[in-house]
Amino acid sequence: MKDTTKRGKLKLYGFNNLTKTLSFNIYDICFTRNEQEKKAYIEYIDEQFNSDRLMKILNDVANNIGAHILNISKQDYIPQGASVTILISEEEVPLYVLDQSCNKGADFNLPSHIAGHLDKSHLTMHSYPESHPQGEISTFRVDIEVSTCGRISPLKSLEYLINSFDSDIIIVDYRVRGFTRDLDGSKCFIDHKINSIQNFISKKIKEKYDMIDVNVYQENIFHTKMMLNSINLDNYLFNINEEDLTIKDAKIIRKKIDKEMKEIYYGKNY
Prior knowledge:
Elements: E1 19-31, H1 35-48, H2 51-65, E2 68-76, E3 82-89, E4 114-117, E5 121-131, E6 137-149, H3 158-163, E7 169-177, E8 180-181, E9 187-188, H4 203-206, E10 209-216, E11 221-228, H5 247-266
Antiparallel strand pairs: 1-6, 1-7, 2-3, 2-4, 3-5, 5-6, 7-11, 8-9, 10-11
């Protein structure tokens, strides 16, 4: 394999066929004392992160990475949850080339469900509010995927997406697939330098999280897990403040939240 990362701008034969995919799960955790609070929390999350809000975030992502939107679809689900898909292109696509069904994000063409398409790439986002059937913990998960071809990179959207949510746990995967060719015909399996997803996360954010990397460099696969390293209890309570709790109750709640976070982070029940 040629080392193409040490040169200047890579001169390619034809289109850059490398597919770069950034996908991650974001988790928010809340302590809900009873069924009423569980229901209220899920309704709150469902409203705060409905398909319109998710669509706005993905529109911003497309702008951040320099992509052009071709088509959007979205859906709010019953009893809860939402999905958005956007099809994007690296370059502006002339109107006469567009499929008649493409809406380019125009509101007047959008149904109550939304999905977005790009000519070479796509953005997707799905939300999953849920609660423990017997316990006092409720969680909100968002699955996001930004997949691009060509020069545009999904890594440019990473910091913005992290800042778009109050995230207790973040699990990120990045992979470069396929190959493209240079002018001599040699295959290029990656066109940029990377040894960790952490390279694209600011110091300010990294200071707030404990982080673990699992990378398979020879396969261009990168995996990073992030968990908040301190718990401000007020950020996890619903319709109540820490000052309203006894010291004993605050300690018990903190322990339950810590257990939930570690179970998600390490992927096993304790």
